[in-house]
Automatic annotation (TrEMBL), chains A, B:
Its EC number is 3.1.3.41. It is an enzyme of class 3 (hydrolase). Its cofactor is Mg(2+). This is 4-nitrophenylphosphatase. PANTHER family: 4-NITROPHENYLPHOSPHATASE-RELATED (PTHR19288), HALOACID DEHALOGENASE-LIKE HYDROLASE DOMAIN-CONTAINING PROTEIN 2 (PTHR19288:SF46). It catalyses: 4-nitrophenyl phosphate + H2O = 4-nitrophenol + phosphate + H(+). InterPro entries: HAD-like_sf (IPR036412), HAD-SF_hydro_IIA (IPR006357), HAD_sf (IPR023214), PGP_euk (IPR006349). The active site is at 26 (nucleophile), 28 (proton donor). Substrate binds at residue 207. Divalent metal ions. Mg(2+) is the most effective. Keywords: Hydrolase, Magnesium, Metal-binding.
Length: 284, 284
């Protein structure tokens, strides 16, 4: 197995950056106040968090003094909407049943895709609510802080009874780090449906899965050979690049440590690694 | 593979019944107005439904004109309480976090086991609610019509942070038949925790699993060689007997049909089968 190359000084940074036109950046690991740091390079922020829309991210970034345009953000909520519209050509007369937060609804609406499900938030389950709705052509499941039995039962019912009803996940992270604890992620929230159906989803967006990269490449007409994925998590960010023919750079400001990639038989190793995104600022 | 024996006439019934002292009966498949039909034989009703307590079942049976005593009912809610008290010797100073319905709480209380969790029903998730509670020594998960993100996040937190916190399921049915649709079962409701923990539960009660039979045998001091499990579902009832050294009788009044057990390579076959429980009434 080939070894990771460590980027140590300005000369390394310059040679590295010259190799690429586009950098895909993990959102949560962003400590680098980017934007205009690398003239002539395209920066795209890629996040598995489906709870927010791209517009929400622009606002969040503003508070962190990061200037970003909606078109520079690729969230799993938007990726799902993009995939439904441009890859699956989801029929206009059909609608999506959402298990998830408003970020998904906003992005579906922005692509002109009809949806339902959010009105079932915080509702008690009543068997008489489980009734046919042949217009539901897909169930899209992401992180959902309002998950309940009614939503699970309705989603299961549509998937079992509507012919060709598609089952999509925004992402399949089993957990995510909340403030002070580890919370169930979209992969956990969708597990009841996978168990009850005894089948895998038809597609899973989100890092490290292929549909996310395909959508990014298609939308931005990227040359993946001149694209680099930068992030702090091996299982999502680095695997995302490794799985999809994109060079990877691990930054050690997050969960992964140098020893994780230097041990014998490390399961996931990046092409490059460095201490911190912030070091690129030395170039300016 | 040995073949199933079909019970066809009164002579068959008599010879069959003579072989056993105790009959374990699936509750939901009960069409046989039992009780005093088979003098000298012990009848026990065994159900995977954890939503009800044994007392609830006595009431339900009364409405069906079936006389049954609480001690003749073995629900997965009671089995869980029995297992915690008598097998695990669950410490008195600890308590159980319940994901499930009141039947579980009632049965834990009847065995003197402290519990919490039901007050989180229909509550919105707030990150600040996820706080340590070192008294939680186990999470017990069953069917829960009030499942929500708060309950999942709390259960996950206790299982990850409380050392030796035990993870139990009342049963692992992926689905159950509701009126007019297939609903997510306890196996689906527990799937987020299994996914987020990336590990199996420490024990699963309920048919067809061994702990349920062990508890029944221990409580009633049964000779399992003189015990027969009667039910209408191959995967739960018949597998329950087959897995645990108990003779099985399939009745064809439910989901399973004769062809399911007569085909070559049928995965689960009962020792005996007959058209209907009701045929035993011909003996009286």
């Amino acid at each position: 197995m080939s070894k990771s190359i460590k980027l140590c000084d300005i000369s390394d940074y310059e040679k590295f950056i010259d190799k690429f036109d586009t950098f895909l950046l993990d959102c949560d690991g962003v400590l680098w106040k980017g934007g205009d740091t690398l003239p002539g390079k395209k920066l795209l922020f890629v996040t598995n968090n489906s709870a927010r829309s791209r517009a929400d991210y622009v606002e969040k970034f503003k508070k962190l003094n990061i200037e970003a345009h909606e078109d520079e953000i690729f969230s799993s909520s938007y990726a799902s909407a993009y995939y439904l519209k441009n890859v699956l050509k989801f029929p206009k007369e059909k609608k999506i049943y959402i298990i998830g937060e408003s970020g998904i609804a906003d992005e579906l609406a922005s692509e002109g895709i009809r949806h339902c499900g959010l009105s079932d938030n915080d509702q008690q389950f009543k068997p008489e609510d489980i009734v046919p709705d042949p217009e539901v052509g897909a169930v899209l499941c992401g992180i959902d802080f309002h998950i309940n039995f009614k939503k699970l039962a309705k989603a299961l019912y549509y998937l079992k009874t509507n012919s060709d009803c598609i089952f999509l996940l925004t992402n399949d992270d089993a957990t995510f780090p909340a403030s002070g604890f580890i919370a169930p992620g979209a992969g956990a929230i969708s597990a009841p449906l996978i168990t009850a159906l005894n089948k895998k989803p038809d597609a899973i967006m989100g890092k490290p899965n292929k549909p996310m990269m395909d959508c990014i490449a298609q939308k931005f007409k990227l040359n993946l050979e001149r694209t680099c994925m930068i992030g702090d998590r091996l299982e999502t960010d680095i695997q995302f690049g490794n799985n999809n023919g994109v060079t990877t750079l691990l930054v050690l400001t997050g969960i992964a440590a140098e020893k994780d990639i230097l041990v014998d038989n490390a399961p996931i190793i990046p092409d490059y690694y460095m201490s911190s995104f912030g070091d690129f600022a030395k170039l300016c």
